[in-house]
Amino acid sequence: MEHQDHLPRATISPDGTQYYDGPDWGWQDLWLTPDRVLAFCTEDRGLPATQVGLLAEGLLNQTWKIECADHDRVLRVGRSERTAEQVAYELPVARAWAAVAPVVVAAEHDDVPVVDDHILTLFPYVDGFSGSSVPSPDRCRELVPVLAAMHRAALELDFDQRPGFTSVDDPPRRYGWDEARAAIIDRFGRGAEVLGPVTVVDRAVEELAGRLDDWTRSGRLAARAPVHGDLNPRNQLYLEDRLVAIIDTDDLRVEPLVWEVANLAYTDLEVEPAQIWRDYLAAGGPLDPADEELLLPMARLGVVGEIQWLTDADGRATHLALDSLFALAATLTGRPTRDV
Asked: Distance between CA atoms of 173 and 303, rounded to whole angstroms?
């Protein structure tokens, strides 16, 4: 099926087997058809579901709005590499956060159902608009006290790392760059327009790995616990500029807590990192005031984490990898911004 730029994202094909993922990615296979989604809700879960519709916001998973007679829900159809053990880890952490910060949307069930090799998770549907349309200083003002509460609760859990996940400070601290570097050069060549930004990333990865070595030896990263891991504006819902939901805990994992604060502090140029840090501590954020000096390098580590999107599942550079590399190098040479 050819690209059709006039179609909205999440348009489902007439035969119900594909959806339109925008002009960059075109038509993609649905992991479950609409009929199968509805059958799971009504027959497997006994829900009073009447209609289902694919949501356009999902990037890595496929998510559906389930209209029900009691209250609407969201069904997350997990990508095939997500395991039952990983989702079973996610569920109690999200519930612990929701207990202290009710805007965190946790799953409605404790089990981990699997259909056609995809794990399905049901959440209550929360009406609201994406945080992308809310000015970043207003978003941060709403989010900071919630983040502080989530971090306090996370430290109480005493969880080990989520199965199959790593933290930014785990060795070998290369962030997939060696593989992505080779894949980009293989696809786009060794011209100056490629090797220039490649060199920028080379230097950043080496520098940040050295800093992490120092911080690890000195114990600066001891405050670590499960974090949301993806607090981008799309995962925040608002009504009248008030935060009403934090969604999508799919990337939840253990990290140094300062890493997540840093990614918020360097949201964009409209946000003042020092003010975010003061507000976080004032709201009871469980970090040492001296850790403020870690914010900038930790935000740069967050930028380096975008390396993972330069290659596809087979390790090949994507067709968008070169443009993404240019953007990555430009961000690493200036003030990092994490509003992505």
From this structure: 14
